[in-house]
Specification:
Helix content: 40-55%
Distance between the termini: 51 Å
Largest sheet: 2 strands, antiparallel
Order of helices and strands: EEHHHHHHH
Strand order of the largest sheet: 1-2
Strand content: 5-15%
Number of strands: 2
Shape: flat
Length: 185
Amino acid sequence: MGHTYTRHFDLETKQHELLGLDLGEGAPRRALVLGLSLYALWTGALLLLFGFPSKITFTLYFLPPLITTVYGTQRSRIVERRWNITRWSIGIRYLVLGHRPIINAGRRAASRGEWISRRARWAGKAEILVESPLGPLVERWLGADESAPPGAGAPIRLAARPRLYGPDAVVKAYGRKAMQHRGSA
């Protein structure tokens, strides 16, 4: 799928009829596919674990995929091109798996010491999780408390000095370039 740079070209196909039921102005097809997929996964898992729902537990089988689909397929307020569910997935992936830095445009893979530790990624949430009944398990999963990754050196100091050239210097440089071209011709 390509990038949508303007909302004018963000064309979404809609489903106007489903199993003989008229959907009016139509529902976005991608949202329907996502909702059906979530519903199949969620309900399938619950059926395997707990069996068929009763009148009381039917809401637990039906409502979470519906809420996730409705709020997940809305446009994100932070990154307008993404759905909320995309942002949630990226956030969960970052918290669980982490972030691997790209070094020199991907020419070298980051070593394990250059990754951001779980404890650093979970920041303020770690203390709450450690105080929970699952504290020892969470503490072991978060790993050691590290302030800086091992192998990281001192910060690099840059001593760049910007130069500002006025129009007279530009004309002078252009004049030199023109003279060089005339001499070579």
